[in-house]
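Lab manual, section 2.4: Encoding a predicted structure.

Procedure: take the sequence of the chain (126 residues), apply the prediction step described in section 2.3, and record the output as structure tokens. A sample record is shown.
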Amino acid sequence: MSNDDDNPLGFSQVSLMELDCLDPATRNALPYGIVGLSADGFVEVYNDTESRLAGLSQDSVIGTHYFSTTAQCMNNFMVAQHFEDEATLDLTIDYVLTLRMRPTPVRLRLLKGSGSPRDYILIQRL
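Recorded output:
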């Protein structure tokens, strides 16, 4: 795990507003996964990094309901329920991805704000 304290677009530093404004090339070049969700949980943003590391094409993920179709292992109180219950959210949790892959330890950063058109899940493999 790299220290990103000096990088304004680093996993622990990037803001919700910055995520909303990132151009696709910059978003795709970041070393962590970015999943942007509509208010009702449908995938609108899926960066190249997450596509490559998860082994799922962007075409197969964009437009799907993230928690019920793409990432069922996150459809629980630790991840999906936070988006449902909280009006604003900036929470980092240790997690283990288990769907479609061997157990993979990650850090998840869950971001939600009333001024943003999307909720975000950032995924940093450990």
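Check your result against the sample. The domain at 16-125 is CATH 3.30.450.20 (Beta-Lactamase).
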